[in-house]
# Entry
Amino acid sequence: AQSVTQPDIHITVSEGASLELRCNYSYGATPYLFWYVQSPGQGLQLLLKYFSGDTLVQGIKGFEAEFKRSQSSFNLRKPSVHWSDAAEYFCAVGLIQGAQKLVFGQGTRLTINP
Amino acid sequence: GAGVSQSPSNKVTEKGKDVELRCDPISGHTALYWYRQSLGQGLEFLIYFQGNSAPDKSGLPSDRFSAERTGGSVSTLTIQRTQQEDSAVYLCASSSRAGYNEQFFGPGTRLTVL
# Structure
């Protein structure tokens, strides 16, 4: 069965520091991959997505992610975080067949120290 | 409006009562999804509607849960005889076929069952 693992439940970084959030997936074919962000009391906002092509994808708010097939990973990065980046981040895999539902990881909560 | 809207934003009910949650998708979006976000289970797919096709109900946790989509637009998720374990945030998302698998989420309905 398809699954997504985000190994880090909670990460704390200082403002201005670099960030990497890890995501590993299990899926039998080339997946569609997504990163969503959820601020407190808000819905999910799409940061970026990977369907095919260039394995390094750029998203909104200065985020990027790299698809590595050999590692079944899709890690999210940002060179310098801002206090407004504090939120919960979800990695998801989209199934190509059938309902095209999203399977989400458990999420990583990001705290920013001033 | 421009985005997915959901109502009510909060719902408190007593165990055993029925509740209805509403979702208004983005105009023109043919696909509509319901997800549930709870502390213990994370984000889970519930049901998917695509155009006039039969819905994919594979994620519904029990027969107390049902959903319908009228006129290819508004959707209602109904939970009968609510239980405390139904307490969660229920998220609705919609997508267009052109934006394959890119789902836009509403702010959610927080359901509390006392």
In short: The interface with chain A takes residues 4, 31, 33, 35, 42-45, 48, 50, 56, 58-59, 91, 93, 100-108 of chain B (CB under 8 Å).
